[in-house]
Design goal:
Largest sheet: 7 strands, mixed
Number of strands: 11
Number of helices: 0
Distance between the termini: 40 Å
Shape: globular
Oligomer: single chain
Strand content: over 45%
Length: 119
């Protein structure tokens, strides 16, 4: 069982930045960030291989968000720049044995952290 705990969410103005963190109990997994806005499904944001060499991004965040990890610290990060109101959502980190973009591929999930971007 892998434990995941997100932090770093908050309220920010459009154009601002935030960095989310996800502490994991086991770094030997590919990891991803997903988000869920009110009334919508859980959408893929970014994923990173266990080594950190390979990354994927959703088109909507490409060039603005950066996923990274520090396996020595058992921590996953999501740096979010140029935030837009449509980025408002609960952000979840997740761990998977497979390096994929689909939520159903991820076996372990954190509790989520709220990101709100005001216009």
């Amino acid at each position: 069982q892998v434990q995941l705990v997100e932090s770093g969410g908050g309220l920010v103005q459009a154009g601002g930045s935030l960095r989310l963190s996800c502490a994991t109990s086991d770094s030997r997994y590919a990891m991803g960030w997903f988000r869920q806005a009110p009334g919508k499904g859980r959408d893929f944001v970014a994923a990173i291989s266990w080594s950190g060499v390979n990354t994927y991004y959703a088109d909507s965040v490409k060039g603005r968000f950066t996923i990274s990890r520090d396996n020595a610290k058992n921590t996953l990060y999501l740096r979010m720049n140029s935030l837009k109101p449509e980025d408002t959502a609960v952000y979840y980190c997740a761990a998977s044995r497979l390096f994929l973009r689909t939520p159903t591929s991820y076996e372990y999930w954190g509790q989520g952290t709220q990101v709100t971007v005001s216009s």
